[in-house]
Amino acid sequence: MKPVFSRAYGAFTRILICAAVIGAFLHVSTSPVSAVAATVYANSSTGNDSTGNGTSGSPYLTFHQAYTAAASGDTIDLTGTFTWTDTAESGDATGTGYTLAKNLTVQGQSRSTIVQAAATRDSADRMVFFIAAGATVTLRNLTVQYGKVVLTGQGGGITLAGAYCGTSGECAGTTGVLTLDKVDVTKNDAATAAINDRAGGVMLQENATLTVLDSNVEDNNCTCNYYAAGGIYGGSQSSTITITNSSVSLNTATSAGGSSYPYDYTSVAGGLSVQRFGKVTITNSTFFGNSTNSYGGAMALYYQNRGVRMTNVSVVGNSATLGAGGILWNQRYSGSNYDLRMKNVLLANNTGVSGASNDFYAKDATSGTATIASYSIVESSTNKVFSGTGILTGNQSSLNVDSSLGTNSATSGTRTLALLESSVAINAGDSAAHGYAGSTVTPPVTDQRGFARVGAYDIGAYENGGSDTTAPTVSSFSSTTADGFYKAAGSINITATTSEAIQSGNTLTVTLDTGRTVLLTAASAGTSLTGTYTVQAGDTSSDLTVSSFTIGTVADTAGNAMTSTTVPSGTSNIAGSKAIVVDTTAPTVTLAAVAATSSSATITFTVTGNEAITCSTLST
């Protein structure tokens, strides 16, 4: 850079000086790169939509500003509580709430990060999220709550857009696709009794796709007519639903239609209802305490032609006033993928009419024929006689299942029912794959909590005596320090986030691309280790990042020691989400002047720096 200055020559005591000042000698300056990186941050307490730039050191205040700044493929990182009724929030609409029309990951810090339609339950006039047609969205580590809808085709918490494009899930790019990963969908409502096609928690319109991982869909309510569910409703047809390591529990559905269509596909289920042409895969999951005044306490499944597979599922303590307290199965054909196939499934203590045992209800003989089960407990059934390998029927006096949900030490936060000592379900399961050729499921080697199954598998989602054998890993490196330039003696935060809670006092040593090492320490039990990098003379980095790390002592709360030293990449490392420049080298400048030709001539000085400089004029 060549700043040029001119001044009339005459007073020799007047000297022009250009002082070179570069960003390396400022602790912080404007970010040298785009303000919005692949991860856009919002903090409902400390953020600012006017002065923030969406980085972790300068987050936005509102979800709307973060969403507006994010591009398709980005991650929105949230801290705090985001409420659509807050004055600062905008972008959401009556009925549909906030529409997500980009391919995004929206993540919180844990389930304590909340996105809600209103500040209290039953006061909103909209859902929380609408997943638009063609959008693929992942929600992770947060809670979705207090949504409320009154129209058909909507879910109180979340709705996935649908489209008619065949009956076999042939809809890539034309419907909403959603993954819930460590998410609580809770305390959402669908009101107005005379309306059909709705869900209290999550509603899938036609051909939409939902994946639920390590999540809890609980305490949602649907007051509706027909074709609905308290927890999750699979739309008019062709939904694809996969539920793994999750709980669908304590949801309620109240039908205004009553007993007009006994045990029919119009039924309003407490937990999960899926209409025709669907594909349903449920593994290592719990359905507990769901209820309806209709048929199908835990779930109602009608005419599935792409396979229903249940593996290590606990369906316990659900109720339906009119019948089918556990599972209502209504199938038109049998064989191949028309069949409902169950293995290691616990169906017990579900009640129907007048509180009588009613665990499994096949609509008719065809539905009964289209049911294949092994290594399962089914205490009571209608239109289906369960028998064969590993099947236990009738009242089990030694069932010994916990009466309430709990995380039971699951670091993922998913909730299940513990099998207590001497339960008949212990060691009564099997590990071999089951299903139809080309569509099989192998019982997982861990239970719903992620704990290793031991010996012969237990029946249900919980493994008695199961242990956590998974070692923690480093999932990301980040910094809370603002983007900008840092010189010698500058301080920069370095934070490591682990895949699960580790023990207080655990340590890692990271090597930065400047060559310096920083000790990171866990100040308390949790998922964070932090340390401070103090910039030293000679350090340089155009975009600070972690190059490698060594493990001091790191173990999870079960004592599993960290062994992997794989360094996270992309947005999971500092350079991928921050713009921190380290420069401790002073600039050099040269000064050139044009010789004066007379006492009244103008002398032009040219200052050239070896890097970007900022100049000011001084007089002496």
Protein architecture, described:
By secondary structure, the chain is an all-beta fold. The protein is built from 3 helices and 54 strands. The protein has an 18-stranded parallel beta sheet that branches. It starts with a strand and ends with a strand. Residues 1-37 have low confidence and may be disordered.
Approximately how much beta-strand content do the residues carry? 35-45%
| Basic shape | elongated
Helix content: under 10%
Would you report the number of β strands?
54
* Biggest sheet descriptor: 18 strands, parallel
Oligomerization status of the protein chains: single chain
Q: How many helical stretches?
A: 3
How many angstroms separate the termini?
Answer: 25 Å
Structural class based on helices, strands and sheet pairing: mainly beta
Overall mean pLDDT stands at 89
Rg (C-alpha, Å): 30 Å
> Residue ranges: pLDDT <50 for 5 or more in a row?
1-37
